[in-house]
Amino acid sequence: MFEDRDKNERNAVYLASKNNQIPTLEFLLEHARNTSGQEKERATIDEIDRYGRTALHAAAESGHSEIVRILLERNCSIKIKDDDEYTALMLCCKKNRQNVLEVFIQFLDETCSTKRNKLLILEEREDGANTG
User: In which region does residue 106 sit, left (phi positive, over 0), alpha (psi from -120 to 50) or beta (all else)?
Assistant: First the structure.
């Protein structure tokens, strides 16, 4: 189920996120966790397509705030950049998805104890590599 891809190398989690299919996404994530553990679930969430985008990129760009919330709660990486060097947060800002931006802000407020930690969670390593 998780090895299948479309022509752009998008997995089922990516497609469910892009198309705002909340019940499908929740089913897929539960299945991944129950059959292979939390690490498989996270790996499935953070898989990239042929353009370097993850399910979070797709949901953030499309304005699907509930999907973004679900993915963040499941510990997806928010630092992964696509081939154009955009993170999901950057894409939601570029597309003026205020509802998604509010989800990111709430997530950072809930998970980071200091302003410095909020900046560190989004910071890139000095060598330019993704740290997610």
Answer: alpha
> What tens digit of pLDDT does each residue of 93-120 get?
999 999 999 999 999 888 877 777 767 7
Q: What separation, in Å, do the N-terminal and C-terminal C-alpha atoms of the chain show? A: 25
Top pLDDT among 95 and 38 is at 95
Give the chain's count of helices (H) and strands (E).
Answer: 8, 0
CA gap 96, 112 in Å, rounded: 24
Q: What is the DSSP string of 13-66?
A: HHHHHHTT-HHHHHHHHHHHHHHH-HHHHHHHHT---TTS--HHHHHHHHT-HH
Q: Tell me the three state secondary structure of residue 72.
A: helix
pTM of the predicted model as reported, rounded to 2 decimal places: 0.84
